[in-house]
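Provenance

Sequences were taken from public entries as deposited. Structures were produced by running a predictor on each sequence independently, with no templates supplied. The record for Nudix hydrolase domain-containing protein from Chlamydomonas euryale is shown for reference.
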Amino acid sequence: GELSRRRRRRRRLSAMLSRIRGGCASPGWRGSGVFIARRWLAGPRHPGGQPSPALARSRVPTMARFNGSTVEQLQEWLEEHGVDTSGYGQGTSKTVADLMEERTKKESVLEAEADGAAVRVVRVLSLHVLNANGQILFEEEQILPDGRSRCRNVALSEKLVGDEQWRSAISRAVQEELGSVLPTDYEVSVYDDTYRLMALDSTSMSYPNLPTRYLFHRVSARVSGLPEGPFSTTEDRPGGQLLTRWAWKYAHEVPCDLCSSTS
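Predicted structure for Nudix hydrolase domain-containing protein:
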């Protein structure tokens, strides 16, 4: 059943992380349907975060990958691998067409594991933008072009595209997410010694019933010219504009921001 498949996935990820670091994976967290394998895969001694090919293969095992080109083919593939999409496009969830667009943009990879279960693999830059008080910039809420609201409570995050490296994505992430409030001469200072690489198995509020494996590249930075208090940004999207509300918070106020990063 579904519970057995989830347990097998958790055991496989735990074993995978043990092989990578030569030890046992740290305990996971349970809550709100989310399982987190808390294991740093790289840190300050590996600031570039560029793993060897063997390490990369162990993190993202290549099983039966979806290689279709149409929404209909993706719908069929998901159903064949046990994903119920009947609720897609309702509430805060996205549509199968949105998932197809994400995959076409190379923002994610869709795999079928050994037991036939589908898994979505996403590489994410998690940028902790700091202010002078040591607070982190958090995205509190999104107002979608159609008027729907999504509570986020997550640090600035951006999916990596294809083989894009996390450092190359920083300027793009800052410009896309914060560009509407930044002066033209803003500067980004990255603290390399804060870099961490973390693997996380989770559910996604965007694509329910589709297990997702996230590889988070987390690093801290300062961005000049940002407002000192809460503020909002706008971003052009198909059908209108995306409005995002931001606020500065201390890390202890959001004990598990990665839990909210899983879109």
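The radius of gyration is 18 Å.
Residues 2-21 form the longest helix (20 residues).
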